[in-house]
Amino acid sequence: MEVYTHRGIGLGPEQTHASFTAAAALGINIEADVRKTRDNVLVMFHGHPLAKTTNGTGEIEEKTYAELEELDAGAWYDKAFKSEKIPTFEELLIKYGSWVERIDVEIKKMNKNTPEHNGIDVLRKVEEYDLVDRFLFTSFYPQVIYDIKTNRHPKPNFNAKFHRHSFSDCY
């Protein structure tokens, strides 16, 4: 049986190192969402807008990574997590890729009005770190999964799945 946290674990602010580290320390697999900044940096962030879980405004896709580095992604959860940052996808790979058994990375569309997505960039980064066997690629969008499956290097344990749910905020 595989057990995953959703956006980290509730022992820290969602989608942050504090939450991912707590999950990993308990031996729990991580589920996380990946998005791309205006300057094409892959970051771990669930939804829109930034104000929901940071002291910023606007959308991830509108900001550069340097702008995101200035934000506090922890104080909304508890003052003990003040100054927690939005992690990059590469940081997730480096810190947790070999620590946890599996990581489920949910790939979002760039925005709800376009078919563009960052799935191939995510796949290439996972391949660069030779962690494909430890990853589950998921999305609410069939095109994302199709693109990942048709652009991957052959690996026996490759796993990509389409979520069949329909949520208005899943982009």
Strand order of the largest sheet: 2-1-3-4-5
Helix-strand category: alpha/beta
Number of helices: 5
Strand content: 5-15%
Q: Which word captures the global form?
A: globular
Spans where pLDDT lies below 50 across 5 or more residues = 164-171
| Mean of pLDDT | 85
Radius of gyration: 15 Å
Largest beta sheet, briefly?
Answer: 5 strands, mixed
Q: What is the terminal-to-terminal distance?
A: 29 Å
Taken in chain order, the helices and strands follow as HEEHHEHEHE
Give a count of the beta strands, DSSP E runs of length 2 or more. 5
Portion in helices: 10-25%
Chart the SSEs and their pairings:
Blueprint: H1 17-25, E1 30-36, E2 42-44, H2 65-69, H3 89-96, E3 103-107, H4 119-128, E4 135-139, H5 142-151, E5 160-162
Parallel strand pairs: 1-3, 3-4, 4-5
Antiparallel strand pairs: 1-2
Summarize the structure in words.
With 171 residues, the protein is α/β, with parallel strands linked by helices. Helix content is 25%, strand content 13%. The protein contains 5 helices and 5 strands, in the order H-E-E-H-H-E-H-E-H-E. The chain has a 5-stranded mixed sheet with strand order 2-1-3-4-5. Strand 4, helix 5 and strand 5 form a beta-alpha-beta unit. The protein is globular and about 45 Å long. The two termini are 29 Å apart.
